[in-house]
Design a protein that fits this description.
The chain is an all-alpha fold. The chain is about 80% helix and about 0% strand. It has two domains: about 200 residues, MFS general substrate transporter like domains (Growth Hormone, Chain: A, Up-down Bundle), CATH 1.20.1250.20; about 200 residues, MFS general substrate transporter like domains (Growth Hormone, Chain: A), CATH 1.20.1250. It is globular, with a radius of gyration of 22 Å.
Amino acid sequence: MSDARRRSPWLWIPSLYLAEGLPYVLVMTVSVIMYKDFGISNTDIAFYTSWLYLPWVVKPFWSPVVDLLGTRRRWIWLMQLLVGGGLAGIAFSAPVPHAFQWTLAFFWLMAFQSATHDIAADGFYMLANSEREQALFVGVRTMFYRIAMIAGQGLIVVLAGTLETRLGDVHRAWSLTMGAVAGLFVLFGAWHLWILPHPDADRPGNVRRVPEFVREFVATFGSFFRKPKIAALLGFLLLYRLGEAQLVKLATPFMLDPVARGGLGLTTTQVGWLYGTVGIVALTVGGLLGGWTASRHGLKTWLWPMMLAMQLPDAVYIFLAHAQPASLWIVQACVVVEQFGYGFGFTAYVLYMIYISRGAHRTAHYALCTGFMALGMMLPGMWSGWLQDHVGYPTFFTLVLIATIPSFLVAARIPLERDFGRKAA
């Protein structure tokens, strides 16, 4: 009996997907909150943290390197240790002069390490599990990835906020928080070095086949751009989240900014509880409901309702920006509405990426779709902070809602079969 069969997936899948989700949420979400606490302007926060999407944009183009050089098992524990090193770098540089520049450099390294870890972990999941186990544990991996989101946006931010209150030093508070998470990733790396199975299929590629591999690689990606109505498909991938890409960079700064500057004046701890608990729960419930409804009636039936559910709740931020309610319950209700709608509506986007990827080379084509998805988040996010700094929060959130219109225009032109996504009777 092989080692792959002796090691129960319960011993490594939960921890593997915790370790996959945490770096992503730290890079994309927690960094924004930390820099807002540091007093960095919204223009700089949005512009520089949006660049952190780049590793996920280009991930499809270096994923073959992971296949060729070393086993996926080795890539996994090595990247986890390197993520721990990156977090230690943030911890040491947070209290020093030029903390923004130093910590941003370490976040940049973490982004590449996290994207590489994604490639290795998802590939290893398929190699180390039978088809039956893959189907059985898909819910487990999704659940623990969600738990990572809760831990990142919630518990880690709450810890930093609590330390801020007790120490009276924002930079030291974040230094201690990131140091603690760095220690966690050292444990992740050591645990997976020991516990991950050694499936026979997890072998390095033959580097002598590189020229042949490059030709196949180019042909595979070329076939993606020869798909029918490729312009409409790319437009959908890039524009579906045009409003959300701008909103996500300014939502937490809006919560943290004082009332005198147009924000809600919440503390870091309150924002952590808000987004990391009820926000994530609403997002998860919306996603589950979206998957269930699409499986019953097909994506074509639900595409437009899902788009409306995702885009229209952005209007709650227009209300919050004008009303600036003091009641945390009102803010919480608005976040629940927006996050539920996002979870429900994002289901359509994921399903349509699967639809685009059908046929030969589906894995590579899906990876390309995720690259365009990241690009669609990166570019609008870069200008969002500058825009908000110039027009204020009420006008900015109004423009975000207007920015959702192009997604509806391009959705009217995309091909889609009526029964796609529907379970067979």
